[in-house]
């Protein structure tokens, strides 16, 4: 019996490559491995996201004119173009990433038979979330149980006739890892450079250890990520100035954006992730676990789905006060004094985390969950 092929159109309002954009591109790559779903991505503007999608031979469409919802004339022109694209591509499913795309595509989607899905990547509860909640949809996908819980608590009414699915985001599983032999213990902080990611807290903790003999000469911190907006660039300068003022430049390297994250993870012993707001999932943590890296992370948001204290890593409670600096510096010092490939406790955490990611967060598992969810609509 022939299997009917369905078309799914992923829509991204952002042109950069963040967690949501990485998910969309990965999903399309996985769909292309079978004939059940044919996928394409529509970006609202040109940038690194469309460029990366094209590099994988993913069908990529970019709006010809930029717009903002706050500019009605420009938006109506974009809405007309969106409508033409929808009619040309004739998708069976329209997968809307972020509330902005849900709102922007509401008018162009009127009357279409396509199933309309909002993928709620978080953060949740903002003004755009509340507006998007009033738009008729067939389903909402979530990237963690925590995201689903907080979203349903934040909307101003109870949903009816909408299906809800939690999709575990998939990461590439590294079956074997030829880890670089480091003379020091390398900590890495990975993610966009911005205040909500909390890189300053990690630097403050490192600063407290700079004069402790036997510690400062055995640790090094790599900060991986870029600053995109003016406020992010200002924060990056604040981080760099802090390193200079506190004389820890020899202990910290700003690596910027890295295309080859495998190489970064291969030379990383411990991932430090200290955001100061709840994250929807924590893709960076899952990637580190898949690369058999010990993780220190927060007791916040969707991270709880995978980071379990003294089982799959080390949970660091963030309280937003000065005690955080002391606690984190003490934790780094304890690990620096005891970390080795022979340490059975840390290796147990690493192996438990790897087993969890392999069983529930592989790319194949993510694709199966996605396709099963589409089939139920």
Task: Supply database-style keywords.
377 residues; Rossmann fold; 2 domains; seven-stranded parallel β-sheet; six-stranded parallel β-sheet; 14 helices; 13 strands; globular
Description of the structure:
By secondary structure, this protein is α/β, with parallel strands linked by helices. It folds into 2 domains: 6-170 and 362-375, Glycogen Phosphorylase B (Rossmann fold, 3-Layer(aba) Sandwich); 185-360, 3-Layer(aba) Sandwich (Rossmann fold). Helix content is 41%, strand content 17%. It has 14 helices and 13 strands. The chain has helices at residues 19-31, 48-55, 72-89, 98-104, 106-109, 127-132, 145-154, 199-209, 230-245, 261-266, 283-290, 323-338, 344-360, 363-375, and strands at 6-12, 37-43, 59-62, 93-97, 115-120, 139-142, 163-166, 185-190, 219-224, 252-256, 270-272, 294-298, 314-316. A 7-stranded parallel beta sheet has the order 3-2-1-4-5-6-7, sandwiched between helices. A 6-stranded parallel beta sheet has the order 10-9-8-11-12-13, sandwiched between helices. Helix 11 (283-290) links the parallel strand 11 (270-272) and strand 12. Helix 1 crosses helix 14, helix 8 (199-209) packs parallel to helix 9 and helix 8 (199-209) packs across helix 12.
- Domains, number: 2
**Would you tell me the overall average pLDDT?**
91
The neighbouring-strand order within the major sheet is 3-2-1-4-5-6-7
What is the overall shape? globular
β-strand amount? 15-25%
Radius of gyration: 22 Å
Q: Give the termini separation.
A: 21 Å
Share of helix, binned? 40-55%
Q: Can you identify the CATH class of the largest domain?
A: Alpha Beta
Remind me, CATH topology of the largest domain?
Rossmann fold
Strand tally is 13
Look at the helices and sheets and give the structural class.
Answer: alpha/beta
